[in-house]
# Entry
Amino acid sequence: MRMVTKVAAVTGFAVALLQAIGPLRAQGTRPLPDQTTFLNEARKYLHRDRVLLSQYVYTEKRTRYDRDSHGAIVKQNIKVLEVHPSVEPDLTYERLLSVDDVPVDRRTLEKEDREQAEKQNTWAARLRNEGESAREKRARKRADADRDEQALVDEVFALYAIRMLGREIIDGRSTIALHLDPKPDYRPHTDEGKLLKKFRAQAWVTEDDFELAQLDVEAIDTVPLVMGFIARLAKGSRGLFHRRKVNGEIWLPVETRLTGSAKLLLVKTMKLEQVSEYSDYRKYGSVASIASNAFTSGQGMRAAGSRDMIGQEGASGYAHHHGQEAAGGRHRVPQVPGGDGALGGARILVAH
# Structure
């Protein structure tokens, strides 16, 4: 199902810009905001706050449905994970808790916790001992990633013709509904842009803080994909993404739903349906993640005051957010936001 997850990540990541599906209730006759001004503000919020996101842990329930040619469910698979995001992608920890309602063996969890802690401590030690050249290389890599992200945001606004539809209430918040259609004559400059041109979208953006509340993307053409195997996502396939503000400080995914069909190896057609539900967001108290600190400094510090958010399941405790020793120094949380996903969502917006 990696193909489905990737599509969600990329579509949410870029189209991430705005959209949704949900309760639609007009909010009086108050004039709509100026579209250009509104979009300029919304554009500023199409980046994830990686540092802030890395301070949270959450539960994700992934349900995959296999359907026959008539659409009837023939198989269902459910996985529940405890997810620990990290600024450093390789350190994000997806801790599998159960499969089809059967809990993962305690000893297996303890083993995986120890392996994750070792992985993070090794990474921290490398950062503490790295030289100036290595730090500069890491900084360049981060700068390149930021430029690529900005290029994609710019492409979204160039690629889509955006039309303001009206004002609607979603989860008690006033949002502006927008419709996004790819411009027929626009030639994308990025690989993601070439993919996005095969999708139309509708977006609901909050009126008070310009954040994506919901997103609905639909494939308007067959979408070629290469995900370890060759596949084509069928026209009409859809991705639905719902986000909500958590702790009054960050927008995070509540649910993503991917439906449609794909042709695998250009022969076998498979109906796709996967639902991810996100819940139980918890923020760590006084300790910042190993990865967040490491991205801003190469000097060592010990994580003090951390609490065990996992340890009730395993003797290893994993009593910290991202490793027992955090490499890095004090830093200010930058304002660059998000979403898993995106998906998440979509990486940039729906993020996680």
